[in-house]
Amino acid sequence: MSDHKVLAGARVVLPTGIIENGRVIVDGARIAGSAPEDAPVLDLTGHWLVPGFVDMHNHGGGGASFTSGTVEDVLKGVHTHRLHGTTTVVASFVTGEMDFLTARAGLLSELAEQGEIAGLHFEGPFISPCRKGAHDETLLRDPHPAEVLKLIDAARGQAKMVTLATELPGGLDSVRLLAEHGVIAAIGHTDASYEQTVEAIDAGATVATHLYNAMPGLGHRAPGPIAALLEDERITVELINDGTHLHPAALELAFHHAGPERVALITDAMDAAGFGDGRYMLGPLEVEVKDSVARLVEGGSIAGSTLTLDRAFKRAATVDGLPVESVVQAISANPARLLGVYDRVGSLEPGKDADMVVLDAAFDVKGVMRKGEWIVAPQGVPTRVPQNA
Ligand SMILES: [Zn+2]
């Protein structure tokens, strides 16, 4: 018996553009090039069919923290984001003690080996006390290459990204070390000048951690990191499109200047994503979530988001008015490329994992498929099984 399914009738977003009334064929866990005649057909007329979302910066969800939760908690957080269309997620850690972070890296590297998460991101501790955001200042340290190496070694090949303030002592050497090890050096939580940022990019940094947030603003005499990061072709800028972290004009400026091929939409989500208002812990710091905005109890800094990527998508396509192809690039293809997994995910092409999201005309999630299995099965969508099946 064949294990084919045909998803037909949707507006399908491919790397080459939008196909009206398109067909995507699934064979087991993969996208296939053709199907036997008796394969069941799911009629998705009136819907969009887009690649599963790829979130390269995410601290948790569903009430669970990637930094501190048990393995079960982490899986619960991963599942919460899958329900919102994120079929590939990197687990991000906030600043902690070095011993704590190396132990967490060891534990979660197993989940990465099993394919549940797409690797690990250390957002601290090598960040600037001047731009610490919701990180515990007492645990911050300069990015000594030997310590950076200790963290990535603990992740047993699953470290994907380290965010660092590259202007700190040891910063540029650490960037070089990360680049040599194939780990993304991300500039963020930084107080660097324009010139210092250019140096870090020349040393091998390739990502801007949540551009605009936790870095000096754009000034006309001191353009700071934002100008350097936006103008350089080698940099992809992360954006948190929740309507709180960024003014729509700041998002538009980044998309316009960097172009859709150099933007990655991320959530920077914390435990409350997909869960609700209340009190939470972000690493060792207490956070109050009110009206879906997370702030530190002490000081009131924005503390991650409660965003899920389906909301970021919808906002980008509606409020921000971006072309759907550009949104798909920024939410699936670009992060997949950066993470080195574009051969398996990030676009709807034969041979890749059957990871996709069904959206209605208003860009609300109606279905989520991961590796050929429905995580969210589309309701009220007619299935047609050919007579001779
Ligand atoms: Zn973060």
UniProtKB/TrEMBL annotation:
The keyword Hydrolase applies. Residues 49-374 form the Amidohydrolase-related domain. Keywords: Carbohydrate metabolism, Hydrolase, Metal-binding. Transmembrane segments: none annotated. SUPFAM superfamilies: Composite domain of metallo-dependent hydrolases, Metallo-dependent hydrolases. Pfam families: Amidohydro_1. The keyword Metal-binding applies. InterPro entries: Amidohydro-rel, GlcNAc_6-P_deAcase, Metal-dep_hydrolase_composite, Metal_Hydrolase. Gene3D superfamilies: Metal-dependent hydrolases, Urease, subunit C, domain 1. Belongs to the metallo-dependent hydrolases superfamily. NagA family. PANTHER family: N-ACETYLGLUCOSAMINE-6-PHOSPHATE DEACETYLASE. This is N-acetylglucosamine-6-phosphate deacetylase. It comes from Streptomyces hydrogenans. The lineage of its organism: Bacteria, Bacillati, Actinomycetota, Actinomycetes, Kitasatosporales.
